[in-house]
Design brief:
Blueprint (H helix, E strand, L loop, with lengths): L5 E4 L19 E4 L9 E7 L3 E7 L11 E7 L12 E4 L4 E5 L6 E11 L2 E2 L3 E6 L22 E5 L2 E5 L10 E10 L6 E5 L4 E5 L7 E9 L2 E2 L6 E3 L44 E5 L4 E5 L8 E8 L6 E2 L5 E2 L4 E4 L5 E9 L4 E10 L1
Antiparallel strand pairs: 1-2, 3-4, 4-7, 5-6, 5-8, 8-9, 8-10, 11-12, 12-15, 13-14, 13-16, 16-17, 16-18, 19-20, 20-24, 21-22, 21-23, 21-25, 25-26
Length: about 350
């Protein structure tokens, strides 16, 4: 019979064979079968860690005639804590595991569970003991070693200098104290060493322009010297358009003066247009640029001067005193801005043309 269901009953008395002589039926009477308490769940496994234990269980086979509503759980340390009188946690009927965290490492705990199918209708408690794992011992710290090898340094050619920078390598467990940077001309001979502290770059100065230099870097800590990096090569390059001495920024090109004139020179043009169709074409692979322009009527020769943008001293560039409008080609430094000045030379007098700021 099913609990929590109404059943009706009636009775009659009989004294003949095969119930052939029976009384009338008694009046009907009803009764509701009460809901029973569920049986206890069954513990399955414990998954133990240093500060947590996960418990698992199976639902009871006898749930008291109705479905379960949930489970009550509790835990304590035998011999240390008082056994709880009621559930400390409640989970729904579909849940069959629970993790208790925040536990002490290497400590015995007792876990208790009951199944319920309604308010105040629960099974008895069933217990199971578990123990957290000891706190894991951290792996020993390895002894410090010398630094790792520095990766391939980057090198940038400058005027009578080379700028070198690199990435910091692994320090081997001991802080890097400094870097050794060595350079030498060519591919043989003695190395010159520089000690660099607190940064991963340096500029090697006092070099000879046009000479190839080899450079290598290594890191140093309290445990010793790291391996030398790959050798890199660079060649210092002279700055263009800046002969010795400088002029303040914004200084105009030097004034141009007329050459010696005959007693009756032809008249100088009263006005002069700047050369048309000026075009500067850089070549990044050859480190040269080509300047071209349309010819100016009456001009005998042309002269090109150059300097770093808005600073430095003007100096000749390319072939001097060009005739006609042939392109003029000269050396430049990549990623550098220049002022270029084109002078027009007539037969008896030189007249300044126009400055052409241009990036090469």
């Amino acid at each position: 019979m099913t609990p929590n269901r109404i059943y009706w009953f009636r009775v009659q008395a009989c004294n003949g064979a095969q119930h052939t002589r029976c009384s009338s039926w008694s009046p009907q009477a009803s009764v509701t079968l009460p809901i029973g308490r569920p049986k206890e769940p069954t513990w399955r496994t414990f998954d133990e860690a240093a500060t947590a234990i996960t418990v698992q269980w199976r639902a009871p086979g006898d749930t008291g005639g109705v479905g379960l509503t949930g489970y009550g759980l509790r835990h304590w340390r035998p011999g240390t804590d008082r056994e709880p009188s009621s559930a400390q946690a409640v989970v729904n009927a579909q849940t069959t595991s629970r993790t208790f965290s925040g536990l002490a490492a290497d400590t015995a705990y007792r876990f208790s569970i009951q199944a319920c199918n309604g308010p105040n209708r629960c099974s008895g408690w069933t217990n199971k003991d578990g123990r957290t794992d000891p706190t894991p011992t951290p792996p020993p710290t390895p002894d410090p070693t010398k630094p790792s090898r520095v990766g391939r340094p980057a090198i940038d050619a400058r005027d009578a200098a080379l700028h070198v920078d690199w990435d910091a390598p692994g320090d081997g467990g001991s802080a890097i104290t400094h870097y050794d940077v060595q350079h030498r001309a060519g591919t043989s001979g003695a190395w010159t060493s520089t000690e660099v502290r607190g940064r991963t770059s340096t500029t090697i100065s006092g070099l000879t322009n046009g000479t190839s230099y080899q450079v290598q870097v290594r890191a140093v800590n309290a445990k010793g010297d790291g391996d030398w990096s790959e050798i890199v090569t660079g060649t210092p390059v002279a700055a263009l358009g800046e002969p010795p001495g400088t002029s303040p920024p914004g200084t105009a090109p030097p004034p141009l003066s007329c050459e010696s004139l005959p007693e009756s020179p032809p008249p100088v043009p009263s006005s002069l247009d700047a050369p048309a169709n000026l075009d500067l074409t850089p070549s990044l692979t050859t480190r040269h640029a080509q300047l071209a322009w349309a010819p100016v009527s009456g001009a005998a020769k042309y002269k090109v001067e150059i300097r770093r943008l808005e600073r430095g001293t003007w100096g000749p560039w390319g072939a001097p005193d060009l005739s006609g409008s042939s392109p003029n080609s000269g050396e430049v430094t990549n990623a550098t801005c220049y002022d270029i000045n084109l002078d027009i030379l007539f037969k008896y007098c030189r007249i300044e043309g126009s400055r052409i700021p241009r990036e090469a």
